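Sample intake sheet
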Amino acid sequence: MTKISTGSWKKFFLVFGPGLLVMLADTEVGSIITAGQSGILYGYKLLLLQIFLIPVLYIVQELTVRLGIFSGQGHMELIKNKFGKNWAYLSMFGLIIAVMGALITEFAGVAMIGELFGVTRFITLPLAALALLLIVFRGSYNKVEKVAIIIGLFELVFFGIAWISHPNLKQLTFETFDIPLHDQKYLFYVAANIGAVIMPWMVFYQQAAIVDKGLKEKDLKNARLDTGIGAVVTQFIMIAVLVSTAATLLNKTDPNSIDSSKSLINALTPYLGVFFGKIIFSIGILGAALVAAVVSSLALAWSIGELTGNKHSLDYKPLEAPIFFGAYGFCVIGGALLVAFIPDVISLSVNVQIVNALLLPLVLGFLVALSMKALPSQYKLKGTYLYIVIIIVLITCLFAILGSFGGLF
C-alpha cells in the first residue's frame, strides 16, 4: 500500500473546497423535496437513478475544473471569448432563470422552517438575507468557502434520519431494480431528479471558484479528487432523503397532502420522533438552503462580471467591485422579498428542477464544446472518453427533456 505523505495531504487541503461546496449546494431545498417526494410516490424505484447520476455529475463538474485551471477564465467569460457575446447572452438568460428558481426554493425553505417553530417569515427572511450578505461582503474567497462548507455540512444529518427510519432491505433491493418506464409520471420524476442533480449554476460557480481560488495545473489531481468526493457525498445525501421518505411515508400518507417542507417534516415526525422528524430535518434543510443561496447567487454575480468585463472576485472589497457585489446583493435581497409573498409549494420546487432539466442541452452543449475547443491538446476531450461523455450527455438530456413532457411512452 502506498503511503500518502503529510505534504500530499497538505496540498490536497489547500486545493480542497470548490468541488465539495458546489456539491453541497447541489443538494438544496428543491433537491431534497424532489428526492423526498420521489420516495413517497415510488419508494426505492428512483434509487438506481441517484447512483447512476454520481459519475454523470462528476463528469460534468470535472470538465469545469479543467476549463477553470487551464483557461484562467470563468465559464461565462469563456463562452463570450470563444463563441461571441450573443451566445453568452443566451447562456446568461438560462442562468438567470435557473438562479431565480433556486433562490425562490431556498428562501421558501428558510421561511417554512421558521414557521414550523412559530417564527414568521418576515423575521427569518431578513435574518437569512443579512447573514448571507455578511458572509460574502466581509470575507475573502477562502473565508467565504470555509463558512459556506460548514453551513452545508449540516446536511449530513440526513444520514442519521435514513438510519433511524429502518428501511426494509429486502424491499429496498427489489424496488431498486423495479423500474416502471411505462409510467409517464415516473419519467417526469426521472427528469426532475436529473434537474435536481445537474444544475446550470453549478457549472458557472465551480469554474469561477477555481479561477478565483487561483488553482493551477499542479492542482488538477487534487481538484478532481475534491470534485469526486463532493459528487459521492451529495448523491448519498439525496439517497438518504429518498430512503427516509420511502421507508416511513410510502403508502402511509397522501402525496397530495405534502405541499411544503413544513408538511413534509410534519409527516415524518410520527415515524422518526419529534427530535429527528422535526429538529434534525429542519437543520438539514436550513443548511441546504443557505449554502445553495450563497453558491447560486455567486454563480450569477461572477457571470455578470465576466460578461460585462467588470471586476469580479471575492478578494476585492465591495466598493472595489460594485457590479459583482451589487449583483450578489440583488440576488439575495430579491430572493428574500419574492418569497415573503410566495407560499412554499412542493410542486414549485419540483417544477424548478424540471426547468433545470430543460436547460441541460444548452448548458452541457457549451460545456462539451468548450472542452473540445478551449483546452490544451493533452487535456481536450478527445478519443474514447469524448465519445463516452457525448453518449452520457445525450442520454441524460434525452431523459431530462422527454421526461419533462410526460415520458417516452
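Comment: The longest helix spans residues 261-308. The chain has one domain: 18-404.
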